[in-house]
Amino acid sequence: MFAKDPITNLENFDKQRVHWGYFLGFNFYDFKFDYTEETTDIIVEGTTGFNVGLVGNLRLHEYIDLRFEPGLYYTQRNLKYPLIENEFDALREVKSTYIHFPLLVKFSSKRIGNFRPYIVGGLSTSLNLSSNAKAQDDNFNNRFRVNQWTTNYEMGFGIDLYFEYFKFSPSIRGVFSFNDELIRDNDPNSPWTGTVESMKTRGVFINFTFH
């Protein structure tokens, strides 16, 4: 692959109308907060999560593909509330398990040997299996609640690497939620949710795809 005049691997691979693959990867999720009044910001500490899923690729044009990449995404975000004095109440661990459904358009460059850079973008929806959306308890009972479903837009870039028997595609993609995900506490003056105008997911995915 890295020789001066490499052998062209999988020369006809991208001419397939449909092909399949799978991915493994990492995620770094965050929340973007907006507030109804000036206040001390909630501190969001992200952790490294894990992704796994499938890839379906439909060839539309020599340089354009439609991608469906359903996957399972595990993550945790720790929220710290500087204005709450009690150490226990000042921390909320928000664990999330997402079933993620992105529909993406991939724009590839002309293939150069066994390399082919690309950019990708599209829309997605996510089902949070750990949302606590139906729970009656709220933060006063140590239960942080978010909506089950979110809609997002995504954009990123990557490179296709062609080996003798498979294609390997590392990529980086950003995800940004459209909608406010926070379910407010029953008390409108709650120190956890009372001043929050919106709370939206944003994150970065690093995926390693095998076709």
Task: Name its key features.
ten-stranded antiparallel β-sheet, PorT protein, single chain, mainly beta, 211 residues, Porin, 0% helix, Beta-barrel_OMP_2
Mind explaining what this structure looks like?
There is one protein chain. With 211 residues, the protein is mostly beta strands. The chain has a single domain (18-210), classed as Porin, CATH 2.40.160.20. Helices cover 0% and strands 57% of the residues. The chain is built from no helices and ten strands. Strands 1, 2, 3, 4, 5, 6, 7, 8, 9 and 10 form a ten-stranded antiparallel sheet that branches. The protein is elongated. The two termini are 17 Å apart.
Helix percentage range: under 10%
User: Major beta sheet, specifics?
Assistant: 10 strands, antiparallel
Number of helices: 0
And the CATH topology?
Porin
What is the C-level CATH assignment? Answer: Mainly Beta
Strand content: over 45%
Can you tell me the residue ranges where pLDDT is under 50 for at least 5 consecutive residues? none
How far is the N terminus from the C terminus? 17 Å
Radius of gyration: 21 Å
The outline comes out as elongated
The protein's oligomeric status is: single chain
Q: Helices and strands, in N-to-C order? A: EEEEEEEEEE
Category by helix and strand content: mainly beta
On the 0 to 100 scale, the average pLDDT is 94
What's the architecture in CATH terms?
Beta Barrel
Counting DSSP E segments of at least 2 residues, the number of strands comes to 10
Q: Provide the domain count.
A: 1
